[in-house]
Amino acid sequence: MRVAVAGCCHGELDKIYETLALAERRGPGPVDLLLCCGDFQAVRNEADLRCMAVPPKYRHMQTFYRYYSGEKKAPVLTLFIGGNHEASNHLQELPYGGWVAPNIYYLGLAGVVKYRGVRIGGISGIFKSHDYRKGHFECPPYNSSTIRSIYHVRNIEVYKLKQLKQPIDIFLSHDWPRSIYHYGNKKQLLKTKSFFRQEVENNTLGSPAASELLEHLKPTYWFSAHLHVKFAALMQHQAKDKGQTARATKFLALDKCLPHRDFLQGYG
């Protein structure tokens, strides 16, 4: 099975599918599954735009509505999680996940699916400590506070995912697991994104909730977005018992969908 992974989509489905088609023509064959790591922006109409936490100048319909209306159909099965720039009222209708358009599936606040024998998990949103232990209390119409708190990760979602017993092959999060930068080319990362330096040195960049899940679930692959830079890492986990083979997670973060940026990666 061939899998493609996209970073921040920002509603640019047409461009992502066009890039995917170009890669398929140049590559070994068609892609079976597309995974999107947040900021998907499943905007159906102008009312959805007003529920997205972005400055007004960035409130554009983009192209998801064409797939929602049936004008177009996604050429490949697409799974996505939520980020911090979403049509939050739309995603709030599907807390446990569901179809947002033909061939496009939302994993929910926290969810796991199996496709062709591959177990794929994900958690939506980004980490903010002041909301982490709260429940989900937000509802439309959102005010200036709840339009942001609605996409903050809650500990109940982390708890749910930690109950999983079977191995996870692929996991998706929007923000990076905290400390993952220590397992890749940190020097190159800081050369590309020098303003990360203080947070990296203080070990505050990324999500401690995602880090907790990474250490607990030990998936084979972990994909993220959010920071708009491509970054790879390999985290070797400690074996629980003597004689057990230690597992490793291959981490990859991808950029946002823009020309000449590393926003798409293929596997298989």
Automatic annotation (TrEMBL):
State what protein this is by name: Lariat debranching enzyme
- In this chain the Calcineurin-like phosphoesterase domain maps to 1-229
Where it sits in the cell: the answer is:
Nucleus
Q: Which GO terms describe its biological process?
A: mRNA processing
Give one GO term, molecular function aspect: metal ion binding
Q: Which residues form the Lariat debranching enzyme C-terminal domain?
A: 247-265
User: Is this entry keyworded Transferase?
Assistant: no
Recorded GO cellular component terms are: nucleus
**Do you know which InterPro entries this protein is assigned to?**
Calcineurin-like_PHP, DBR1_C, Dbr1_N, Metallo-depent_PP-like
For this UniProt record, the keywords arranged alphabetically read as follows: Hydrolase, Iron, Manganese, Metal-binding, mRNA processing, Nucleus, Zinc
**Cofactor(s) the record lists:** Mn(2+); Fe(2+); Zn(2+)
Q: Which PANTHER family match?
A: LARIAT DEBRANCHING ENZYME, RNA LARIAT DEBRANCHING ENZYME
The family annotation for this protein states: Belongs to the lariat debranching enzyme family.
